[in-house]
Structure formats: structure tokens, C-alpha cells
Amino acid sequence: MATLVIREDVSVVHDAELLHKACQGWGTDEKAIINILGHRNAAHRQQIRIAYNDIYHEDLVKRLESELSGDFEKAVYRWILDPVDRQAVLAHVAIKKSEPDYHVIVEIACVLSPEELLAVRRAYHLRYKRSLEEDVAAATSGDIRKLLWALVSSFRYDGSEVNARLADTEAEILHNAIKDKALNQEEAIRILTTRSKLQLIATFNSYRDEHRTSITKQTLLGTSDDEFFKALRTTIQCINDYKKYYEKVLRNAIKKVGTDEDALTRVIVTRAERDLQDIKELYYKRNSVTLDQAVANDISGDYKKFLLTLLGKED
């Protein structure tokens, strides 16, 4: 369930005019920008960009980049992008860090549907003139490369059919690989990167039933410093229950010494139109404080106002 609150009687031409006015004069009207964009869905935002360009012969995204700054600018920029293009940008930023953020690549590959992932790969190629697969391969090495490249290259079956016998068999393959600390073996990577999500959930359930523990707990036994095993655990979490995974990302982002603004922005911006309300409820159950309160207490200024607007909090 989404948290985005869309105002009635949207006029994209009027919105474009108000945004232009907000960027005129000596100071930017950040409140007007938040009030408009924070209450428009992806289709509205795309139409506003087109209307703005038609009227003023200027790219709205570039204009906002020049008017805004800091975390607020980054959040608005990522919000205004088409969702598929946004995922391509997030992937590129994650790959180009001095230490690539493989968690973001895993999220994109494992949370999105096969069709959505394919669309992101196309958007990435269109924007950067390279494939997502080649950039992942160039930025990583060893077992991490094998896993991430397989994840972004896959096109999983997305139907409802599940093979229970296969789930039992592959649960044992994964168990033996974990026990022997050999999850880098090609057979285990093949299972986790090519099976449908429903098939893998059946495999994870079979693992739990047979071994009386979850596969995510097992993957970290004695391997807490192993980056490959951490990436593998993220893969399993994103497939098994991505909403719980996102709750944990938010919790860690806020509770860190110094907020992880990138992670906070990423989750709120990408999930506000989809299922952020569900993630908010999980957050409250886990932390006994609402996500709105946690965000309000941790950040400030227009950045805070914008994220709270996307969280559905009205003035």
C-alpha cells in the first residue's frame, strides 16, 4: 500500500507554471516545489516535465538541480525521474562508488519483477551507453562478481508453479554448500539467480522445516566478515521478504552514527508509490516508534519536509 497522497484535480500545465514561478527571483520557493511534486504520481511527474519543456523550452530536472542542493536536491531529483530510469541511476551510482554498494544491485535484481529488471537494463544502456551487466562485471571481482552478474543478467520465471520435490532437493544443496562454506560454487549460485521467486521461497521454507533454522541465519555463521556471504544473505532476504528487508535498511540508516541519507532516500523514494505503508507498519512493530517520527527526529530542513510528504504526513 502506497503512502503517496495525490491531490485531486491535477493540472500538469498549472503545475509546470507554478514550478517555474518557484524557481524565479532571488530565492527558490522550496515549499511550493514540495507541495506540488510531493503529491504527484509517476505519470503526473512525467507529464509535468513534458509540459514544462513545451512551455519554457527547458529541462525541469536540470532546472531543479541548479536551484536545489544537498540531500533535498538529491531526493527531488530521484523522485522526479521515471521509476525505471531512477533504478538505472541508482544502479550506476552504486557501481561507481569507490567501494561498490552491492546491496543496491541486489535490491534491483531481486525485488523487481523480471520485466521490470529488463526495463531497467534497457534504461541503463540508453542512459550510459553501456550495459548494466558489463559495468557490474568491471566494478567487482571474484565470487561477488559471479553472483551479481548472474543476478542482473537473469530473467526468472514469474508464474505461480512450484515444484515441491525440487525445493527439497535444492534446499539440501544449499545446506551442504553453507555447511562447507562453499556457497560460491556454481550450483548454488545457479539456484539463487535463476529459480523463480516462489520456487526459492519454497526452497527456503523446506530448508527451515528440515534444519530448524532459517537459511539467512545459517549464511552468517562464522562468515560475518565475508562480503560474498553478506551479499548472498541480502539476496535471500530480498527474495524471501523484501518488505522486512527494507524495514531493516531504514532502521540501520536512521540508527547509524550519522544518518545514511542515501539509503533513507532510496527506500522512501522507490517505495512511496508502491508499498511504503506496509514497510511503515513493520517499522513501528519492530521499533515501537513510527517511521514518520524517526525521520522527523533524524533529519532537518526541506529534506525532512519532502521525505515526510512522501511518507504521507500532511502539514
TrEMBL record:
Pfam families: Annexin. Gene3D superfamilies: Annexin. Keywords: Annexin, Calcium, Calcium/phospholipid-binding, Metal-binding, Repeat. SMART domains: ANX. InterPro entries: Annexin, Annexin_repeat, Annexin_repeat_CS, Annexin_sf, AnnexinD_plant. One of its GO terms (cellular component) is cytoplasm. One of its GO terms (molecular function) is calcium-dependent phospholipid binding. One of its GO terms (biological process) is response to salt stress. Ca(2+) 3 binds at D298. Ca(2+) 1 binds at G25, G27, E67, I254, K256, G258, A296. A pair of annexin repeats may form one binding site for calcium and phospholipid. This is Annexin. Belongs to the annexin family. Coiled coil: none annotated. The keyword Repeat applies.
